[in-house]
Amino acid sequence: MEMTSAAPERLRAAGLRVTVQRVAVLEALTARPHASAETVYSRLRGDLSGVALPTVHGILNDLTGAGIVRRVSLPDAASALYEVQDDFDNHHHLQCVECGRVEDVACAVGEAPCLHPSHDHGMRILEATVTYRAICSDCERKK
After folding, report:
1. In the chain, which ranges are E strands?
2. Do residues 39 and 24 lie in contact, with contact meaning Cβ atoms separated by under 8 Å?
3. What contacts 24+ positions apart, CB below 8 Å, involve 60-67?
4. Which of 115, 69, 76 is nearest to 92 (CA)?
5. What's the pLDDT at 61?
6. Spans of the chain below 50 pLDDT
7. In terms of residue numbers, what domain contains 104?
8. What domain count does the chain have?
9. Would 14 be classed as within a structural domain?
């Protein structure tokens, strides 16, 4: 697998060693955000010999810890989903309650955290997460 994307530089900038497996996982998430570890593994196992599901889980944990990838937990999702983290990106998610499709939705107000609680209890708010639950047009047509 040839390393021609920006993934190697992102890994180096985060202080992580560049490996074929890490690059492949990062590229898979760039191509298909909101993917579970199992989905990433399924995409890679045909092209990357020797990759195992526990390896993908470990890489996702490393990438999440380094701030390159964001873990997204959504209602009704069988497992955590992952997407590439962009320092300048502040968005929420729209999730179809029928098929589970997930799409990004721009922040309701602007800069992070973009939502403020009525009382912060002395804490500095870093992030606010909103999940809009809906039915996508494909599922609506099927009904």
Report:
1. 69-72, 81-84, 91-96, 102-106, 131-134
2. no
3. 60/25, 62/16, 62/22, 63/16, 63/22, 63/25, 63/26, 66/11, 66/14, 66/15, 66/16, 67/14
4. 115
5. 97
6. 1-3
7. 90-142
8. 2
9. yes
